[in-house]
Design brief:
It holds the Pfam family SpoIIM. The chain has 345 residues and is mainly alpha-helical. 80% of the residues lie in helices and 0% in strands.
Length: 345
C-alpha cells in the first residue's frame, strides 16, 4: 500500500514537473515572440524613417521620385536592414564603420548613393538617442514611490545629467544639417538662394539687438514647438545646420571659419541647448499625458514627474539667453575686426 502511495506521489510530482516545464516553454515562447515582433518593428521603423528622410532631401533638389526609385531607395532599405541587424546583435561599431566606409566610397562615384547611406546612419542615431532619452536610468520615472530620491544635490548638475541625451540628439541634428549641406550642396541650391540673398542684404546692418532678437526668436520657436512633439524643433535644428553648411561651401573654408567661430561658439551652443530644452519639455508633457491616459499611473505622480522635468529646463534656459546675448555682441562688434586681423585684410 505504501509503495502504491509512493508511486502515485512520484507520478504526481512528475506530472507537476512536466506542467511547469510546459508553462516555462510557453512563457519563453511568448517572450521570444514579443522580442521577435519588437525586432521586426524596429527594422521596419528604421527603414521607413530612413526612406522618408531620404525622399524629402532628394526631392528638395528637384529630382523626381522615379529618378531614385530603382537604385537609391532599395539601397536605403538594404543599409537600414544591415545597420539595424548589426546594432541588434551588439555589433554597432562595426555596423557604423561599414556604413561610413560605403558612404565615402559611394561619394566618389555618385553622391545620391552616398547620401542614401548617410541618411541611414543619421536615422539610426536619431532613434538611438530618442530611445536613450526615454530610458535614461538616472532620470525621473513614473511608478517610483519616491521621485525626489532621484534628484542630485546640485541643480546645475541635475539639469545636465538629465538632459545629456537631449543635448546629444540636438547636436546630431544640427551637425547632420551642416554635413549634408556641405557635402551635398546641390540638394539645396534652389531652395536656399533666397535665404542667401537675405543674409547678404542684412549683413551690412547688423546690430547686437537685432541679432539677439533674431536668434532668440529661433530658440523660442524651438521651445514652443515642444507642444507639437518637437517636430518643428527637429526641422529648425536641421535647417539651421543646412544654412551653416551651405554658406561654408560658398566661401573659402578659412574665411568661413574665421568669420563664424568667434560668435558661433556661443550661438550654436545656445541653439543646441534650446533644442534639448524643447525635447525635455516634450518629454515632460508626454509624462503628464501618460498620467491622464494610463489608469495605472497616479495623475498627481505624473504631474510631479513632469514638473521636475520642466524644472530641469530653468538653468539651461538661462544659459541660452546669456549665450545668445554674448553671441550677438561678438557678431555685431568683434567678428569682422577679428576676421580682418586673422586674414590680414
Amino acid at each position: 500500500m505504501r509503495n502504491e502511495d509512493n508511486h502515485s506521489e512520484v507520478v504526481h510530482l512528475s506530472e507537476a514537473a512536466c506542467n511547469l516545464k510546459k508553462r516555462a516553454e510557453i512563457r519563453d515562447s511568448y517572450h521570444e515572440g514579443i522580442r521577435a515582433n519588437s525586432s521586426v518593428n524596429f527594422y521596419f521603423l528604421v527603414a521607413v524613417v530612413s526612406l522618408l528622410i531620404y525622399i524629402v532631401l532628394v526631392m528638395s533638389s528637384g529630382l523626381k521620385f522615379t529618378d531614385i526609385m530603382v537604385v537609391q531607395l532599395p539601397l536605403v532599405v538594404i543599409f537600414s536592414l544591415f545597420l539595424t541587424f548589426m546594432t541588434q546583435n551588439s555589433h554597432s561599431i562595426a555596423g557604423y564603420v561599414t556604413c561610413f566606409v560605403f558612404a565615402v566610397l559611394f561619394y566618389l562615384v555618385d553622391q545620391s548613393l552616398s547620401l542614401a547611406v548617410a541618411v541611414v546612419i543619421l536615422t539610426m542615431l536619431i532613434i538611438y538617442y530618442t530611445n536613450k532619452i526615454y530610458h535614461n536610468p538616472s532620470d525621473y520615472r513614473l511608478g517610483f514611490p519616491k521621485i525626489g530620491g532621484f534628484r542630485l544635490k546640485s541643480m546645475f548638475k541635475n539639469s545636465f545629467v538629465h538632459l545629456k541625451y537631449h543635448i546629444c540628439l540636438s547636436v546630431i541634428l544640427l551637425v547632420a544639417g551642416i554635413l549634408i549641406a556641405y557635402f551635398y550642396p546641390s540638394l539645396f541650391q534652389s531652395i536656399l538662394q533666397g535665404t542667401m540673398q537675405n543674409l547678404q542684404q542684412g549683413a551690412s546692418s547688423i546690430t547686437t539687438e537685432g541679432l539677439f532678437v533674431n536668434n532668440s526668436s529661433v530658440a523660442l520657436m524651438m521651445m514652443l514647438a515642444s507642444l507639437l512633439l518637437s517636430i518643428p524643433t527637429v526641422y529648425l535644428l536641421i535647417f539651421n545646420g543646412i544654412i551653416i553648411g551651405f554658406v561654408g561651401v560658398q566661401v573659402p573654408l578659412s574665411t568661413f571659419l574665421v568669420y563664424t567661430i568667434p560668435h558661433g561658439i556661443f550661438e550654436l551652443t545656445a541653439i543646441v541647448i534650446a533644442g534639448a530644452v524643447a525635447f525635455r519639455l516634450t518629454q515632460a508633457f508626454l509624462e503628464i499625458a501618460n498620467g491622464i491616459i494610463n489608469s495605472k499611473v497616479k495623475f498627481s505622480e505624473a504631474v510631479h514627474v513632469g514638473a521636475d522635468m520642466i524644472m530641469d529646463c530653468i538653468i539651461p534656459l538661462i544659459i541660452v539667453i546669456v549665450f545668445l546675448v554674448i553671441a550677438a555682441f561678438i557678431e555685431a562688434n568683434l567678428t569682422v575686426p577679428i576676421g580682418q586681423v586673422l586674414l590680414g585684410l
